[in-house]
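Suppose a colleague, Dr. K., hands you the sequence of a protein chain of 474 amino acids and asks what its three-dimensional shape might be. Before reaching for any lab equipment, you can write down a predicted structure in token form. Begin with the sequence itself:
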Amino acid sequence: MKYKKLRVRFAPSPTGQLHLGGARTALFNWLFARKHGGKFLIRIEDTDKLRSKQEFTDQICDSLKWLGLDWDEEIVYQSTRIDLYKSAIEKLLEKGNAYRCFCSKEKIAEERKQAEISGSGYYYSGTCRNLDEKLVQANIKNGQPFSMRISVPEGYTEFDDKIYGNIRVNNKEIDDFIIARTDGNPVYNLVVAIDDNDMKITNIIRGEDHISNTAKQLLIYKALNYPIPEFAHLPMILGPDKKRLSKRHGATGVQEYRDQGYLASALINYLALLGWNPGTEQEIFPPDELIKQFSIERVQKKSAVFDERKLQWMSGQHIYKKSASEILNSIRFNDPDWRKSDDEHYVLKVIELMKERVKSLRDMQEMTGMFFDDPLEYDEKALRKKWKDNTINDLIAKFERSLEKIELWDAEQLEIVLRNLAEREDISAGKIIHPTRLALSGTGSGPSLFDMMVLLGKETCLRRLQKANKILPY
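The predicted structure, expressed as tokens, is then:
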């Protein structure tokens, strides 16, 4: 499908950091805009003065920038548009599409209570809908507080959702909802419709939790003679327990995943596949390929389940495809001083050797320490299994003496020496490989032993073997 002058928006509330659900919504809007040559806009919905904070606005914007979701025009802030909203309310009043409601909170609460007792859903009774204009003006003159309500017409409100298909709502199920509170502040469903029209938004892509709001917003569109945009509502993201993703499932904020060392490209890749299916078996996508492949028609109705292990695997795949220098730059984006005092050529070699074994940049930082510092302790589990008694000390001493004689310190020669010793001792090569790895790295796992030994160098390897042989087993 071709779109002319396509414009989409992402509209977060600055009451917390950008969470994964919001990031996916932003991503799908961004992909849709980039795919069709449209505009991706940002609107900050900061009308909640008590909960909205500038620090969250900054954090949301920083997270979007880190993810690579660049926007095309200046950010719109709802808090600066109150006059626009009030003007729209006046138009609705003039046209008879809205009215002042003088019902007190106590009266509304009593109506709601009675509805609950009777077992029926609560709908505003419409008490003030047809008040005589003289009474309205008298109430205003007497300073009686009032809210503003939309006058919902009879009939049905329907729209074709790009994901969920045709949705039709009987207007009897929509009461005359409030569009401005007694303090004069306009409410969500009003300001969103006004903003989307003013920003010339052509396509609205947002979470399925907004489906119930769409019918109300359509009533405002129609009452103000606004052109109707296309809608697409995204399925929810669930945790492994099939409940809505929340903090109880672990980290949910984009900032947290950045701090944990995930690459932005990996998180983008994973979020894209939460609800969207490319129609192939392919799972690893760089951002530019996601743009080419993305189609809103291929977004599924079924809720997507967040799988931390799948994200970790995907992160590892993205790291493996990066060059060592790209990985180093990414690490230093978060930690500018990491390994600054070490020879960069050596650091890059370490990264190259380790990149197929890590799942995040933090893994890379934590798992490469053995290449820069001698072990201060040894993994207890590996020690019990691989260095059980002093017979290992004899083997390591023999291996050490064999290593001292090597002139060409490369992986091939190191392996030959080790396997020759194993043959002379009539044991498997693993009987030497595992305790050697433990002595050199302090751990029971890692990259190829011989590649690790080459990178560490002869002097370091001999020193660490001698140290371990003196103090092990504990």
